[in-house]
Amino acid sequence: MPSDTPEPEPSELRMQCMEVWGGNESATREVALTGLDAWVYCQPHLNSRTGGDVYYLSSCASGRISRLLIADVAGHGDDAGKTARALRELMRRNINYINQTRLVEAINGQFAQGVSGGRFATALISTYFCPTQSLFLSTAGHPWPVHFDSATGIWKELPDSPAGRRDGPLQDLPFGVIDQVSYRQVQLKIVPNDLVLCFSDGLIEFPCTNRSSNGQLGTEGLLEVLNSLGPLAPGQIIPELLQRVTGNLSTASQSDDLTLVLLRPNGAPVPLENSLGAPWRLLRELFRKPAD
C-alpha cells in the first residue's frame, strides 16, 4: 500500500556533465547542476507511486548549460504515467539542441506524432546558461514560474513579454495538440540569492477558498503565501509553502499530481575542464547511436 507521504531522499544529488535525472515518481531531493541548485518535490495524485507529472533535470554536453522540464500529462493513473515516461524519453533524446525553441518544437512534433496516446501535455522548459547567469523559459500551455528578486526581497510574476515573437496564431500550445507549433521564450537574468519557483497546475488549482474567489489558490494567492513566509533557507521554502497552502503535506496531492522545483543560481563558475572539453562532448553526442 502506498504511504501517505513521499519517501524522503535527504542526500544531495550533485550532477556531472552529461548526467540526467528525473521521472514521474514521488520525490523530495536537492540537485546540484552547473551553476544552479534545485530543490525538487513531486507527489502523484492520491499518493500513487507514479503520475502524470514529469520532472527532468540535466547538464548538457557543452558543460555550461543546465536544463529543466516540468510537464503535466492530462489525466491520472497508469495510462497518464506511461505517457509521462515517454515524454521524459523525448526530452532525453533531444536534450542537446542548443537553441531552446528548436528543442521545444522538436519535442512537441515527436510527441504529437508518436507517443501522445491521444493525450496532451502542458510543459515548462528552461535553459540556464551559466556564463551569463541567464535563464531562458518557454511554456507549452503551462503556468509561468514566479521569481524572488533578491534586490527587492519580493516574490513576483514574470513579465509576460516573450522574446522572439513570430507571426501566426499557433504559438505556445500544449504538446500533442498539433505537431506544427512555434514557441517563444523569456530571458530572465538571475543572480545568487534570486529564486525561481516552477510548478505544475496542481499547486495553483489547489482548493483554497480563503484566498481566491474561484475556490483555488491561484497565482495571486501563491505570491501572497510566498511573500508571507519571511526569511527561509531555500530547502525550507517548498515544505513551508505546502504546509501553509494545504495545512497538511500528506493531503497535498489529493486533488491532482503536484510538482514543484525551486531554482537558485549558486554563482559557481563553469569548471575549466567543461569549457575545454565541450566541443568534443558535443561531437561525440552528435554521432552517438540513439538508444533503442
Structure report:
This protein is an alpha+beta fold and 292 residues long. It has a single domain (13-286), classed as 4-Layer Sandwich (Phosphatase 2c, domain 1), CATH 3.60.40. It is built from 6 helices and 13 strands. The chain has helices at residues 77-94, 100-115, 201-204, 218-228, 234-246, 272-286; strands at residues 13-14, 20-25, 27-33, 36-43, 50-59, 65-73, 121-129, 134-140, 146-149, 154-157, 186-189, 195-199, 258-265. α1 (77-94) packs across α2. The longest helix is centred in the first third of the chain and has 18 residues, at 77-94. The two termini are 33 Å apart.
Topology, element by element:
Blueprint: E1 13-14, E2 20-25, E3 27-33, E4 36-43, E5 50-59, E6 65-73, H1 77-94, H2 100-115, E7 121-129, E8 134-140, E9 146-149, E10 154-157, E11 186-189, E12 195-199, H3 201-204, H4 218-228, H5 234-246, E13 258-265, H6 272-286
Parallel strand pairs: 1-3
Antiparallel strand pairs: 2-5, 3-4, 4-13, 5-6, 6-7, 7-8, 8-11, 9-10, 9-12, 12-13
Helix pairs in contact: 1-2
